[in-house]
Structure formats: C-alpha cells, structure tokens
Amino acid sequence: MSGTEQGASSGGGLIGSRGAGALVVVPTFNERENLPLIVDRLLTSLGDVHVLIVDDSSPDGTGEVADRLAADDSAGRIHVMHRTAKDGLGKAYLAGFAWGLQRDYRVVVEMDADGSHAPEQLHRLLDAVNDGADLVIGSRYVPGGALVNWPKRRQLLSKGANTYARIALGAGIKDITAGYRAFRREVLETIGLDEVESAGYCFQIDLAWRSLQHGFVIREVPITFTERAIGESKMDGGVIAESFINVARWGIQGRLARLRH
Q1: Which residues, including other chains, have CB under 8 Å from residue 127's CB and lie 6 or more apart?
Q2: Residue 235 and which of 30, 58, 122, 155 are 20 to 30 A apart at CA?
Q3: Is residue 168 pLDDT above 80, yes or no?
Q4: Which residues, listed in sequence order, are joined to residue 117 by a DSSP beta bridge?
Q5: How far is it, in rounded angstroms, from Cα 38 to Cα 116?
Q6: DSSP H helical segments within the chain, as ranges?
Q7: What's the mean pLDDT when you consider all of the chain?
C-alpha cells in the first residue's frame, strides 16, 4: 500500500471485510440528488457499514430523502440526524462523531455526499486502520492519488493550502486538508473534540494536527478525488481566511512548545 505514515499505533485490526464496525458520517446541505447515489454506492461496496446522514435543514428536501432511504433499508444500516441550523461542516461532523461514539462504533469515517469521495475506495482506508493506523487520510497527493475534473483554480488553492499548512506546522502530511478520513474511536475520544471550533478546510487541519500532537499514527492512502457533477461547492473565502490565520497560530504555538522542552 502506497502512502505516508507518522506516529505510533494505538491498536490492532478492528473492521470486518464488509465494513462491520464502521460508521460513515455524511453531512448534507442541498444534496437531494446526490445522496441516494452515494448511499447506494457505499452500501453496494461495503454491505455491513453503517451510514449516518447529518442534514442541516436543507431547503431542497434532502432531509426527507434521507428519511426515505433509512425507512427503506430493512437492515437498519442507514441513520439520519436532523439539525435545525446550518452552522458549518465542522459542527455537522462533530455532531456525527458524538452520535457514533455513543453507539460504540469502532471506526468513524468522514465522507462527502457529492460523490467526490469514491465509496468504492473506502476499503483502502479501513484496511489501513486494520493494519494499525489510528487516522487514515484518503490523499490526492501521494503516489497513486488523482484529481478528476477539478478546476485548475481549485487545484492551485488546494495544493497551496497543503503546502502552507505542512510548512507552518512542520507536519509531514501531504494532504492535511483532505476530507475523506477514517478515525479509530480512540482518536476522537482523546483529541478534545469539545474544544474544536474550526470549519471547512480548517476543521480537517485542526483534527489532523490534534492527532499528531497526541502521537497517533496518521497514514495517507491514495484516492481518486472527482469534482461533483451535481450541485455547487460550499467553499467560500471566509473558510480560507480562517484556515490561514489558525494554521499560523498553531504553528507558532507548536514551535514555542518545542522550545520550552
């Protein structure tokens, strides 16, 4: 398996070959067309995985679509959380993480609803967990990773953000902004999720940085990231500015802490 790795592992294999023991958290806002497609692909690829759809009161009826998917799944693998406000990707994931931890899932996965993260490649992340990693990042920028139909501007922004974060934090992760991830539950229980206020790109950097600070093994495995075919990206300038400022602050704090020791 190609990829990069940092840290020292906290445990052994956890996930069944069809995804048993894993919860995939899928935040949604106006994804009524994409959601049935991605859930079907996911459950076709890994039939025992569970899905938690976290909908932020989508005005297009995504929440109702999610409820129908759950009602039609006789195996009880699809679950839905309805939130009353749209307050960011990070908060939606935090709510999903808390739900999964309360129900004793061994691994919790982040996955976008728009099809950019291929469910058919989720086994790569879960295999890496079973091989001893604590946090596995589906990476666009390790050997074997790829981008499909992504505008050049977005590619430059993504690569620039990753380079900036890697230098500022002194972290060896090539795709620290990536949002296709598998966390061993012990990571989420340890890194202080109640203190996380970040959103978007910055949320992903924040959780990876916290995981590094606690000494967890982080491994990157190659994925193919495909630009959404339906709907619009939720990225905005405020999220980018937040990332720039917070990463600089964390980098300075990390260097000061190393100097003190």
Answers
A1: 1, 221
A2: 122
A3: yes
A4: 225
A5: 10
A6: 34-45, 62-72, 89-102, 122-130, 152-169, 185-190, 200-213, 237-260
A7: 88
188-227: b or e for each residue (b if 16 or more CB lie within 10 Å)?
A: bebbebeebebbbbbbbbbbbbbbbbeebbbbbbbbbbbe
**Cα four-point dihedral sign 165, 89, 77, 81:** positive
**Total residues found in the chain within this entry:** 261
Question: What DSSP state is assigned to residue 219?
Answer: E
What number of other Cβ atoms are within 10 A of residue 261's Cβ?
Answer: 4
Report how far residue 204's alpha carbon sits from residue 210's, in angstroms, rounded to the nearest whole number: 10
In this prediction the pTM is 0.87
User: Residue with structure tokens 């598998």?
Assistant: 182
pLDDT reported for residue 244: 63
Residues 200 and 166: their CA atoms lie apart, in Å, by 17
Strand pairing report for 181-184 and 107-110? antiparallel
82-108, pLDDT tens digit by residue? 999 888 899 999 999 999 999 999 999
Residue 75 in contact with residue 48, Cβ under 8 Å?
no
Q: What letter would DSSP give residue 120?
A: G
Residue 91, SS3?
helix
Backbone angles phi, psi at 5, to 5 degrees: -145, 145
Query: What are 123's two structure tokens?
Result: 């086994």
Please tell me the distance from the alpha carbon of residue 109 to that of residue 125, in angstroms, as a whole number. Answer: 9
Amino acid at residue number 41: R
- For 251, the 3-state DSSP assignment is helix
